[in-house]
Amino acid sequence: MRLVAELAAPGTVLLCVANSLRHRTERLVGRTARGDLVFVGANTGALGWLTRDLGVRECFEIEDPGFVPFGGKAVHAPVVGAVAAGRPVASAGAPFPPDAVRRTPVAEGDIVHIDNFGNGKFPFRADGLCHGDRLRVEVGGRRLEAVYGTRMMDEEDGTWVVYPGSSLGLHELGQVRARGLLDLPCAAGHRLRVRRAVPRPVRAGDQNELERRGG
Predict the structure, then answer these.
(1) By C-alpha distance, which of 29, 3, 35 is closest to 17?
(2) What is the pLDDT of residue 137?
(3) Alpha helices of the chain — where are they, by DSSP H?
(4) Which end of the chain is more exposed for a tag (fewer CB within 10 A), N or C?
(5) How far is residue 144's CA from residue 194's CA, in Å, rounded to a whole number?
(6) CB 208: neighbour CB atoms within 10 A?
(7) How far from each other are the two terminal CA atoms of the chain, in whole angstroms?
(8) Which residue, among 173, 75, 63, has the nearest Cα to 121 in the 3D structure?
(9) What is the C-alpha to C-alpha distance for residues 100 and 45, in angstroms, rounded to an integer?
């Protein structure tokens, strides 16, 4: 949802009907504060990143007709059609508090997306890393030798690179001119671990600080 929102034109309606939860949640329709995008979907966490980053101008709980076998078709789709036809979002139901939109927690190293090039996007704090630093990455049951870089294509073909990504402020793990994670047994939701392969030498100033702390 959030990746699509980056390129969506104002007024675009984003519909998400996937629900991996065992229980039935609220059905929501709303509009973002930035981008003027309409979102429709179950309150499962799929809307969380979208509403956190773009804000919520208005949000409503779609009138609940009770359980139906395919709510995405019988309940959500008619709302999408009505909004696309010009009806106000508020006509779909009762006001819903934006802070009650569920968030899906994402920890460092959690893969949130693997694109068609096999590049995995994940949160990562690169504190202290410099271009060219050697890394070890554990992902999909494999240990990969990688390099930290600011531009992936500067490296040789087949090299694994961790680099600042192009979307959502995330880092990416990719393989230069190769299939990357597409050939590994991992997917969105899996976690990878990145660590420096060769410890950086301790400088004099760092050693003094360690001694001051009793290290």
Answers:
(1) 29
(2) 97
(3) 2-7, 48-54, 71, 77-84, 204-212
(4) C
(5) 10
(6) 11
(7) 47
(8) 173
(9) 10
The Cα 38–Cα 164 span in angstroms is 29
Structure token pair of residue 76: 């959500």
What's the rounded mean pLDDT across residues 156-161?
Answer: 96
Confirm if 189 and 45 have CB atoms less than 8 A apart: no
Question: Strand runs (DSSP E) across 67-170, as ranges?
Answer: 93-95, 113-114, 120-122, 134-139, 142-148, 160-164
Q: Which is it for strands 27-32 and 193-196: parallel, antiparallel or unpaired?
A: unpaired
Q: How many residues does the chain have?
A: 215
CA 106 vs CA 23, 24, 45, 113: distances in Å? 21, 22, 11, 12
- Both tokens of residue 49? 């990143």
- pTM equals 0.75
Per-residue pLDDT at 209 exceeds 80: no
DSSP 199: P
C-alpha–C-alpha distance, residues 162 and 26, integer Å: 38
